[in-house]
Amino acid sequence: MSSTLDVQRADTAPAPRARVGTPRLTLGLILLVVVLAVVVLGSVLLGTRDVGVATIWHALTDYNPDSTGQTVIREMRVPRTLIGLTAGIALGLSGAILQASTRNPLADPGILGVNGGAAAAIVVAIALIGRQSLTTYIWFGFVGAGIAVVVVYSIAALGREGATPVKLALAGAAVSAGLYALISAIVITNLEALNEMRFWQVGSLAGRYWTVLQQTAPFLVVGSIVALFSGRVLNGLALGDEMASGLGVNVRRSRQLLFAIVAVLCGAAVAACGPIVFLGLAVPQAARAIVGPDYRWVLAYTAVLSPVVMLIADIIGRLIVSPGELEVGVVLGILGAPVFILLVRYKNLAQL
Amino acid sequence: MNLRRTPAPVLLGLALVMGLALAGCGSDDKSSTASTDTSWSYVSGNGDTITLDHKPERIVASAAEAGGLLAYGIRPVGIYLAQDIKWELGLADQDISGIPIVGEEWGHIDAEKVAELQPDLILADWWPPQDAYQGFEEGVDEESLKVAKLAPVIGANQEGSLLELIQWYDGFAKSLGVDVDSGEYAEDREDFEDALASFKQAVADKPGLTALGVAPTEDALYVAVPKYSTSLTDFQDWGLDVINPVPDKSFPYWETVSWEKADKYQPDLLLLDDRGYEDNLKIAEAQPTWDKIAAAKADAITPWPGYWVHTYADYADQLETLTAAIEQADPNIGS
Asked: Which pTM was predicted?
């Protein structure tokens, strides 16, 4: 039933619906990259401590470890910005890949059990071996996210037709529900786990310095580069499994590869800054609204737009409740929800 | 770390409980200030006088407050915690086996369990900035608030001197018929007097030494406001120059200092909140700016009892640790 619908849709939904010319798209992308550069600069420039541009220049070119201002720039704001940048790209790209490969406009890292897996692994670790440092949690979060994705995919792949979009969504929801039950069971009986969870679950870039970046950057960078080249495959899958097969795409192999990429990207991003859900859901939608259905462009735009949104939210969080900070996950929720509702209201999202 | 003292002898405690039970039968009432033979009253930390028609025998107490009672051999019938028991340092040296725990988290006290215990009195510190007793502050759940209606609440004032807070317990125990001038607690008090004398001497020997109370978290460095920390108030009164930060508006116990500005205050000696001292230190050391506090770089860091001391014995231990740190400190580290 669903496959006939897919074929019909592929027949009737012409790709050029919202297509903008390639030169204009290229120009737009260049503009967005400039915006990203400005936001990155802002992220290094703005914070609770006033640091002048000269200090920033010295911190980057002629670092004097005795200067507190330079230390703040070099050891705190630069790594924090780079984590926001790489994790933002990773979350956006995973969202785009998931939405295309599962043909589910509401797909985001949460739906695959990534967040639940990471959180469950961290909570279990606290319950078994006690409170740990942030850098230790990252490994647990990463492994947990990876296991969750493998489990979800394996469950969905059972049966003759393999891992169809609907079965993936159901398996993801079921595994997530199970994982959250496990998390609840642990945090109800283990106060330490509850307190650590509260801190981690919000999603934050605060307190993330070079060690966190060093741990996660290799996964984020390699994963993002591979993801950027998946546009053609995604275009095929977005047409429906049968159509994609007809076009010569190995549906099963492609989906497995894409899920592996998502597991690496989300696992590393969630481990680095906690479950930040909104980016992966909304940014690919916005990108598609701008560039149309060609996933090569959707991926490129998502990769630039996503860190822009992430870093702006983080900067706002730093400045809004000075001297303290508001976590980036909270800011994204507050700012993002109305934007997303508008997007859903005015764009027909079901037409992927 | 010299944070723990040897547990009090259990037998002595038992004997005292039995003595109390007998006293509670109404034969001996000499310390009561009440008008009739059997009634009992005592002035709470907020100035209210709590009066009961008989001496309270069944007391449900907040954690560190329970520690204060147990030091006098008075066993509460129930204890509610504000956090994991391993952070409730006021109970660390006390034998609480057999006493039901009726709350394990701030904001959640099991009203049903407390009701079953049929308390005569609830013992909890009075926190003036929040205008509330411990466990019944703004933000706790509805069920906790019901607990405060099961019996009158009484407690020592957590603004002002920590020594006076402990002396409030002296008076409280006395009103319950405990002979506070002999036995182990009398010895504890003498030990405390000695520790205090050494502390004052050490402070006098280090003119110009400044100290700062801090609690590091992943989010920010919290700097303690001495006015709302009974121990820091005492240290200031006894001559130690504890820096006064600018209190946050919403929660005046602390000034929140972002890690980017961690070098805002430059004391000669850092007093680090000892509720999870090792973890706190690890969190702080992971921050690139921690070393920008000269005292941190020089390792001039010593545990500071974060709002939990309720006994002479614990206070004496803390003063001894602090005295040793002051003796080693260099008054020229900070600025």
From this structure: 0.80
